[in-house]
Amino acid sequence: MRTLSLLIAVTALSVTALAAPAGAQEPVLPPGAIALVGSEPIPQAEFDHWLPIALRERRGVTDPPGYEGCIAAERRFLRKKGRKPTKRELRLRCERRNVVARERTMAFLLEVRWLRQEAAARQITIAPERVRRYLKEVRKLQFKSYSAYRRFLRKTGLTKADLLVRAELGLIQLRLLVAAVEAAKPVTAKEIKRFYARHPRRYEDKPRAKALRAIRKRLTGLRAANAAMDYLRDFRSRYRGITVCSPAYATEDCGNA
Predict the structure, then answer these.
(1) First-to-last CA distance in the chain?
(2) Residue 256 CA to its chain's centroid (Å)
(3) Order of strands across the sheet that contains 40-43
(4) Measured between alpha carbons, how far is 253 from 257 in angstroms, rounded to an integer?
(5) Residues 6+ apart with CB under 8 A from 109
(6) How many domains are there within the chain?
(7) Which CATH number do you get for residue 179?
(8) Cα-based distances in Å from 119 to 36, 39, 55, 122, 185
(9) What residues does 245 pair with on adjacent strands?
């Protein structure tokens, strides 16, 4: 899964497309879809919307299959750094940027389905007004002024609707992780005393009561972190198992990859 900030992925099958696994067979997908998560399709049009955004985030755009614009931009960028790259090097940089952007886009689109389906299964709902408030809070933290925020939208190609999607996902992710941590078994007094007995020198300069409180805090933090990681591993495994993608768009998140 991704973080809670606004971190803000076609062409024919070629070296610029997402690599299709050797021997992969085209799954049966609904018309216009490039992947399925359970019974929910991911439309080609949605991928086409988010891909330019991912490309802009990686310093400009790419223009396969020739990459003329990308090569020119990369040449200017590297020359400012005192480098004189070959055309082959520039093309490889552009091809790689395109692949990474496509992978990022697919990962994001799959995450949208995974998180929303998991929230629905756990009866977690995020009110639209809460999402709008969260986005406003983040905007005020990340941008000095509203005009700076508007410049960011123009530069990235993002819309407010796009940012609301990302804000919603961040809030869902937080609720899921909190639930996973709260479901973890509490640290017991026996575990605390056992840890204290095994590491006497670590706490020899503290009174026993203070040492036990410190140990409880330490073990509780470790248990929370482990609970979150266990949940994320299970979450990824479950949803990867019900995700199928067209070979031209397959990533490691696709169960048929």
Answers:
(1) 18
(2) 20
(3) 40-43, 33-37, 243-245
(4) 8
(5) 35, 42, 46, 47, 50
(6) 1
(7) 1.10.4030
(8) 18, 16, 29, 5, 22
(9) 35
pLDDT tens digits for 190-221? Answer: 999 999 999 989 998 999 999 999 999 999 99
The Cα–Cα gap between 221 and 224 comes to: 5
Cα 14 to chain center, whole Å?
Answer: 25
What is the reported pLDDT for 13? 26
Torsion of CA 8, 10, 15, 21, to 10 degrees: 80
Q: So what's the pLDDT on residue 57?
A: 76
If we measure between CA atoms, which residue out of 85, 78, 82, 166 comes closest to residue 126? Answer: 166
Q: What angle do CA 112, 116, 120 make, to 5 degrees?
A: 170
Place of tokens 């973080």: 3
Q: What is the pLDDT of residues 22-78, one digit of tens each?
A: 444 677 899 999 999 999 999 999 999 999 899 887 666 677 888 888 899 889 989
Q: What angle, 0 to 180 degrees and rounded to 10, lies between the N-to-C axes of helices 208-240 and 160-182?
A: 120
Is the Cβ–Cβ distance between 242 and 255 less than 8 Å? yes
User: Which residue range is the domain that position 122 belongs to?
Assistant: 33-249
- Asked, for residue 61, whether it belongs to a domain, the answer is yes
Written as one letter, the residue type at 26 is: E
Query: Which residue intervals of the chain are DSSP H helices?
Result: 44-57, 68-80, 87-121, 128-142, 146-156, 160-182, 189-198, 208-240
Tell me if 43 is assigned to some domain: yes
Q: Is residue 19 part of a domain?
A: no
Is residue 84, in this structure, part of any structural domain at all? yes
pLDDT digits (tens, 9 = 90+) for 170-186: 999 999 999 999 999 99
